[in-house]
Amino acid sequence: MNKKSNKKLDGRNKASIALLISSIVFFSINPIKTHLLNTNLKENDSDKIKIITKSVKLKKDTKTENVSNNTTSISDNSAAASNSNNGKASKENNTTVASASKESNSSNTDNEKNSSNESINFEKVQSLNLDMVRAAKGKVDYSSAIGAISIPNIDLLLPIFKGLDNHYLSYGAGTLKSNQNMGQGNYTLAAHNYPDYPKILFSPLPKIKSNDRIYITDFGKIYEYKTEYIKLIEPTDIFVINDTHNKTELTLITCNNDGSKRYLVKASYIGQSSFTDNTSETKSIFRLN
After folding, report:
1. Which residues are catalytic?
2. For the chain, what is the domain count?
């Protein structure tokens, strides 16, 4: 009788231990995932300066190459003009070039006008997850940022990317309209809020206050804005990205902690300065070496 009782007791103990182990494993999955996600996000966060620096260098190299090409073109055109004995032909050629240039500029203006109101597809944006953040490491071009945003008072500095690609949103902010220009109309940006790591991406944004300065750059100029307000809005309030007539502003959007609403930051335009002229200030704002 005792042996049977002991066997039953041993069986119950083993079952209890197995259940306990299963419970521990089950309840530890999310913390483990969260820890791994935090680790990967911190690595991404440390790369933001590298992305901005490489993008600045690419912009600078491209500008230097364009200047060099333009200089060569001007030199070639001057040589061709001096060797030409037909002034009339030269005049006709210049007229043709001017006409082609005018048509090209007109075409570019039309394209900009036609695409200026196109919005990004919000439905493709996914919540931050471990697989996406890990995959981003091999799919993000470190010199592909079109600019950067800095809000010194809340210690926020991020590269800006065109559109809302999920991999790029693991590293920085994305534009909400397909054709928008800094310092014009309503320039709009969005980025993730990640409560478990309050320094990542747009997570510091809820700490912003009225009159805090916001700086954005396209690596050619720095555009300065002054924070007007921050408030919670509904996810369906997409009208906030629309341009307002005769108003130049900046709009920043991120989710609140549970994703039920959106934080909206509105800032008014103050002015612009050269990215290269204000070297010491530029380095301080965007943490460049």
Report:
1. 192, 255
2. 1
- What number of CA atoms fall less than 13 Å from residue 86's CA on the CB side? 6
Q: How far apart are alpha carbons 37 and 53 in whole angstroms?
A: 25
Question: Mean pLDDT in the chain?
Answer: 78
Q: Distance between CA atoms of 127 and 119, rounded to whole angstroms?
A: 20
3-state percent breakdown (helix, strand, coil) of the chain, nearest 5: 50, 20, 30
Tens digits of residue pLDDT in 2-25: 555 555 556 566 555 555 444 433
| Residue 119 backbone dihedrals phi, psi, to 5 degrees | -105, 160
Q: What's the count of helices (H) and strands (E) in the chain, helices before strands?
A: 5, 8
Q: What's the pLDDT at 41? A: 86
Cα–Cα distance, 212 to 206 (Å, whole number): 12
Is residue 280 situated within a structural domain? yes
Q: How confident is the model at residue 106 (pLDDT cuts 50, 70, 90)?
A: very low
Residue 13 lies in a domain: no
Domain that holds residue 197: 42-56+120-286
- 227 - beta bridge partners? 267
DSSP per residue, 156-198: EEEEEESS--TTGGGTSEEESBSS--TTSSEEEEE----TTST
CA distances from 143 to 1, 70, 161, 168, 259 (A): 77, 24, 10, 12, 31
pLDDT confidence of residue 198: 86
Alpha carbons within 13 A on the beta-carbon side of 252: 33
Percent of the chain at pLDDT > 90 equals 47
Amino acid identity at 18: A
